[in-house]
Amino acid sequence: MLDPFGRDVSYLRVSVTDRCDLRCVYCMAEDMTFLPKKDVLSLEELDRLCSSFVDMGVRKLRLTGGEPLVRRNIMSLIRSLGRHLESGRLDELTLTTNGTQLGKYATDLYDAGVRRLNVSLDTLDPAKFTAITRWGNLEKVLDGIAAAKAAGLEIKINAVALKGVNEHELGDMLAWCGSLGYDMTIIEVMPMGDLGNEDRVDQYLPLSLVRQQLSERFTLTDIAYKTGGPARYVQIEETGRKLGFITPLTQNFCESSNRVRLTSTGTLYMCLGQEDAADLRAPLRASESDEPLREAILEAIGRKPKGHDFIIDRSSSNIAVPRHMSVTGG
Ligand code: SAM
């Protein structure tokens, strides 16, 4: 599937639920209103949608959320999608998770064909972890990550850089990742969703600064490694692991975007930072044939924009995109 800028859209991220068992302060308001359950696609519908994308050339599927592993019966969807790995039509089936449920699911994930996970973790300090997530338990997440490693899953830790919160801890986290054999990605806070009392400007920490601080402790060598994603990677010479930087604000990352995002209600967003979207639920439900769905997908890909502009400053609104990250997944 080629978009108007000649980019081959081969990567689909699917938010399987907008619900989460944590409430990270930069991601959700404390009293979130979640999507009505009746609007959410069934697991069978999600399977049909994902499989249509695979038929049309998607080679990589990432399940996200909300927290994908809190969706009831999620393993039945993951196992079912695993058939596309076996047939060779899909290169990778993976998840982004907060790790709270990994103790329960790590082995099942491996058995279903999952080989790599992104685990979101912003601090190794138990009190800070509880403060950032509003009620999470760090030990449970660390146990979950250890279970995933023991099950044979490769792990990348995703940390959002938060001014005054974890900014002086990122070096220790990088060393921790190195000691356990995990890659790491550091992400700039993106202006998405209303957070109630939290202020984006107070959270925002440019990664240029983070990189400068890390290079006082580690040797960072730029490398050409690409996942087709927005991260730019360096090799950490001291640990031999990779570190990615995702910088939507200081450096627009769209020119190589090969991905689209599906919400749990079947809305396809062609860009994380733009509002234009296509409803795939109506064509999905309108017919048992996949033809109307395929037409709707192609029409949407034909509208994929070149990129987005996030801005965080005091003169502009705090919110560039009104939906929360949990709707489209990170
Ligand atoms: N619950 C799963 C998890 O925690 O990884 C998947 C969904 S979560 C929305 C995906 C990623 O988005 C997490 O790494 C989270 O830290 C990140 N995220 C959420 N809101 C963000 C924001 N406003 N700016 C940058 N990253 C954000």
Structure description:
This protein has 330 residues and is of the alpha/beta class. Helix content is 31%, strand content 18%. The chain is built from 11 helices and 12 strands. The chain has helices spanning 43-55, 74-86, 102-111, 126-133, 138-150, 170-180, 200-203, 207-214, 281-286, 291-301, 325-328, and strands at 11-15, 60-64, 92-97, 116-120, 154-161, 183-188, 220-222, 232-236, 242-246, 259-262, 267-269, 277-279. A 12-stranded mixed beta sheet has the order 7-8-9-6-5-4-3-2-1-10-11-12. Helix 2 links the parallel strand 2 and strand 3 (92-97). Helix 1 packs parallel to helix 2 (74-86). The chain is globular and about 55 Å long. The two termini are 22 Å apart. S-adenosylmethionine is lined by residues 20, 24, 26-27, 64-65, 67, 96-98, 120, 158, 160, 187, 189-190, 192, 325-326, 329-330.
Summarize the structure.
This protein has 330 residues and is α/β, with parallel strands linked by helices. Helices cover 31% and strands 18% of the residues.
Structural class, judged by helices and strands? alpha/beta
Order of helices and strands: EHEHEHEHHEHEHHEEEEEEHHH
Beta content: 15-25%
Largest sheet composition: 12 strands, mixed
What small molecules are bound in this structure? S-adenosylmethionine
What is the count of β-strands?
12
Helix coverage percent of residues?
25-40%
The coarse overall form would be globular
Strands of the widest sheet, in order across it, are 7-8-9-6-5-4-3-2-1-10-11-12
Q: What is the arithmetic mean of pLDDT?
A: 90
Distance between the termini: 22 Å
Number of helices: 11
